[in-house]
User: Which sequence fits this backbone?
């Protein structure tokens, strides 16, 4: 189950959150073995976000994955995700990282790769 957590200082309407949720779900399939139906997405808007002392409409996204994914796929996801955010919300800059786990628990099951 991929987990995508997006935090931004920008306000996002409920309608745009729905658009983002659907499109992020579609983009996750760029990563082999990942799909929208099993992706959990968190969207936090209107956060107090600072870079140094500057408060702005930054965006930070963390993508958690069970198991490694090819660099090329992660890069493609990042570029398309960045484009999506730039089209949908007013942000100053986007930061994204990947966190890869070898163990994951859900549905009364704990898995180890």
Assistant:
């Amino acid at each position: 189950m991929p987990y995508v957590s997006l935090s931004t200082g920008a306000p996002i309407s409920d309608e745009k959150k729905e658009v983002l949720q659907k499109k992020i779900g579609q983009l996750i399939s760029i990563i082999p073995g990942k799909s929208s139906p099993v992706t959990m997405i968190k969207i936090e808007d209107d956060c107090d976000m600072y870079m140094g002392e500057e408060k702005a409409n930054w965006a930070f996204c963390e993508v958690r994955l069970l198991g490694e994914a090819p660099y090329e796929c992660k890069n493609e996801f990042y570029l398309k995700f960045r484009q999506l955010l730039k089209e949908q919300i007013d942000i100053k800059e986007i930061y994204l990282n990947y966190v890869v786990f070898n163990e994951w628990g859900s549905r009364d099951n704990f898995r180890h790769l």
Observations:
- The helical segments are 14-27, 71-88.
- The mean pLDDT is 96.
- The radius of gyration is 15 Å.
